[in-house]
Amino acid sequence: MCYCPHRKTLQRIQFVFRGSEMLRATSNITISGEDCGTKVGKVINVNKDNYKHLVGFNLITDDSTVFIKDDDQASQYLGLVVKKRSMMYCVSKGNSFCKTCAGFNLANNPFAASMAAAEYGSAFLSMFLKSMHGKTLATKKLDIQTAIT
Ligand SMILES: [Zn+2]
Fold first, then answer.
1. Which residues contact 18 (CB under 8 A, 6 or more apart)?
2. Residue range 124-143, pLDDT digits in tens
3. From ligand 1's centre to the CA of 93, what distance in Å?
4. What's the whole-model pTM score?
């Protein structure tokens, strides 16, 4: 491990660079088109901790897709296993995802996928910085006789 004084600065630069890489790599991805029609989704066991994450997304049912518009509607799925439409399983052609898989928030901006990816990069940088500033260097006197024996 490198202990040079610039190690932390170099790590910060790496995270910022990775964030900009994510932005660049996703810059030509668009969210357009109404529904790719996929029947594959992210399988979620809905409980009280995650049911609000369904709001603004579409669930796959036996014969259609159901848009979850609020917390009350999402709470109807508590205790059930559902398939949530996700950009991971979108079958749209080219560099685009359909609005149904992307969900309400991302579907309102055709370039939102790139911004969302950049947001993940920022979240990683923020986690890294928080972990760096939350640490303290603690020392303790070592008794060599008890440490070895
Ligand atoms: Zn799709």
1. 121, 124
2. 777 777 776 666 677 888 88
3. 9
4. 0.66
What separation in Å is there between the alpha carbon of 135 and the centre of ligand 1?
43
Residue 45: strand, helix, or coil: strand
What is the distance in angstroms between the CA of the first residue and the CA of the last residue of the chain? 28
Which of 97, 75, 76 shows the shortest CA–CA distance to 86?
Answer: 97
Q: Which of 64, 59, 101, 63 has its CA nearest to residue 76? A: 59
Domains of the chain, residue spans: 31-122
Give the Å distance between the CA of 86 and the centre of ligand 1: 7
Distances (CA, A) of 122 to 10, 25, 128: 16, 15, 10
Let me know: does 3 contact 67? Beta carbons within 8 Å: no
C-alpha of residue 58 to centroid of ligand 1, in Å: 10
